[in-house]
Amino acid sequence: MERGKMAEAESLETAAEHERILREIESTDTACIGPTLRSVYDGEEHGRFMEKLETRIRNHDREIEKMCNFHYQGFVDSITELLKVRGEAQKLKNQVTDTNRKLQHEGKELVIAMEELKQCRLQQRNISATVDKLMLCLPVLEMYSKLRDQMKTKRHYPALKTLEHLEHTYLPQVSHYRFCKVMVDNIPKLREEIKDVSMSDLKDFLESIRKHSDKIGETAMKQAQQQRNLDNIVLQPPRIGSKRKAKKDAYTIFDTEIESTSPKSEQDSGILDVEDEEDEEEVPGTQDLVDFSPVYRCLHIYSVLGARETFENYYRKQRRKQARLVLQPPSNMHETLDGYRKYFNQIVGFFVVEDHILHTTQGLVNRAYIDELWEMALSKTIAALRTHSSYCSDPNLVLDLKNLIVLFADTLQVYGFPVNQLFDMLLEIRDQYSETLLKKWAGIFRNILDSDNYSPIPVTNEEMYKKVVGQFPFQDIELEKQPFPKKFPFSEFVPKVYSQIKEFIYACLKFSEDLHLSTTEVDDMIRKSTNLLLTRTLSNSLQNVIKRKNIGLTELVQIIINTTHLEKSCKYLEEFITNITNVLPETVHTSKLYGTTTFKDARHAAEEEIYTNLNQKIDQFLQLADYDWMTGDLGNKASDYLVDLIAFLRSTFAVFTHLPGKVAQTACMSACKHLATSLMQLLLEAEVRQLTLGALQQFNLDVRECEQFARSGPVPGFQEDTLQLAFIDLRQLLDLFIQWDWSTYLADYGQPNCKYLRVNPVTALTLLEKMKDASRKNNMFAQFRKNERDKQKLIDTVAKQLRGLISSHHS
């Protein structure tokens, strides 16, 4: 029962579900029926549902059949009426067709006319549209044509402006045309072409200024020289004002009509006019050396293209390279002044151009960049000048170089460049200049001293006298009173040396000009250089002459006289320096001239040389001495060599009349002492082993001749027998042996008032031994004679006593 109930319940549910699905199928759009059918197939009652579906279909078919049967008569009536209307419609169709044919035939011409009108209207519209488009395109084409013309004529900056207008104003209006696309694609290429061409122009400009830097610098330095000459003529002491005027004049080098802030004009070219209009005759043929328009155009172009920084960096880099080339001096620059001049011209030309660029452009170069370049240039220039100037041995070239450096510095100072280091370097070159002057004057002094005849200057008339006095400050009232012909006491080298010292001072003064030094500094420089000339150069020249091997006593005497007069002239040299520098000698820190010391030293050297020379002459005469130490004959006159020696000394001392008294006296005393010493050495020399009393007598005659010479007063100023004291040792020794006064000698030895005080027992013993040996040899067969034996014993006794004196003296 229960199963039956359950089956009945399930069949009711299935039937209700199938009914719901059927209603849903009837009411739902066929496109959405898929899910409904899926639910049927998902179920298990598919067959039963199909039965119900067929049943439902049959029901609907019956309903449709009922409805059709109900309306069938109306349908038949409608068909009948429609068949009737078909005939009428066919007639109407025929009439319409006929009417249409007639209308078509009649309207054919009108259609053709309308078609023609249509085509005309279309063409008119197309033409109007074309004109409008062409009117829109023509400005673009005109601008492009203008751009090409400007490119062709190298008007690149206007071309760049045209390109900008074309790109931003005209091309956007016709951007849909193909030719515009081509133009748009060409615009970057045109910009690059303009950049390349302007850069090429800039490179040509850089090459041009590199070639013309020499001429630019030359002209700038000429103008600075002309301005300085003008300042010297009008005597304008304030240098600052003159420099400002020079700065203004210097800018007349540049004949520029430039408005750097307004690059619209194509005429914005700056031409380097290297001469002022007023100086056209003085500096001809140097106009339009450099055209600055390429650099201005290139600057404007790169600025418009947004690449100004790139352009500035390129320009500065290239100019730095050119600066290094300009600052590299040629290896032979030191040989001629033209080498230095060309070097300076190039440097000046370089910085004149940079200064012009600085003042005519906005930021292409700045002051820091210029200062950096100048610092580099200054250091390299100073190093080059130090190196090359050290090779200069000609003072005239060094002086010309100094003047060129001053002009170089003044020219650049006009343009605002600091040049203090150049003037500091000139002070170094000043020392080198002094050295070259000293070398030159060493040669001048050597030539003067070598060519001098070392004889007093003879004058035969007043004109010659005044000429000498004009060259050398000499005053002598007695000489002025003497009649012509007469002689100056000094030789020709005195006025020549004095004049050359003044010339040296002038040469030193020339170097100090335009160095912006104070008068005190100039005075100090001149005095120090003159002191070097006197104490080193002139002193060495005099010493070389004095020490010359073939120098004679006459020359030495004249040198002493000359140096005496030169020494007196030192005060006039002091006055001369004071007059040209206007610095009084009493001024603090003023150096004094050391000429007095120089001439004193030379005179002392000459005096010593005279003493040495006299002694050498005496030695030469003594070498002619030919004594027969074993003679027994008693002579009655002095030896010939000694007579000649005395005659020489007399003639020599006669020349000493112009020497200072002490010099002549010292020379005479030195000669007598040397003669006495040499004679004593001749008597006691070891080669003379034996001598006789006769030889001693002859020697005594020679000594008497010397004493007679000393008594004759060959040089005035000696007191009584002062000169004879030079021979006192010889005199006492000879008297002792000739008089054979041994008892007195031995008895009084050691007493202050001893007659033979100057006789040394060693000397006496040496001479006695020589006589004893001679006596033994001559009397070897007469030794048995009583007198001879007594004499021999006496000699032995005296010798023994002398040895006792010597031993007691040593103990």
Automatic annotation (TrEMBL):
Residues 52-221 form the Exocyst complex component EXOC6/Sec15 N-terminal domain. Residues 82-109 form a coiled coil. Transmembrane segments: none annotated. The keyword Transport applies. GO terms for cellular component: exocyst; plasma membrane. Pfam families: EXOC6_Sec15_N, Sec15_C. GO terms for biological process: Golgi to plasma membrane transport; intracellular protein transport; vesicle tethering involved in exocytosis. Residues 258-284 are annotated as: Disordered. Residues 421-770 form the Exocyst complex subunit EXOC6/Sec15 C-terminal domain. Keywords: Coiled coil, Exocytosis, Transport. Residues 273-283 have a biased composition (Acidic residues). Belongs to the SEC15 family. Component of the exocyst complex involved in the docking of exocytic vesicles with fusion sites on the plasma membrane. This is Exocyst complex component.
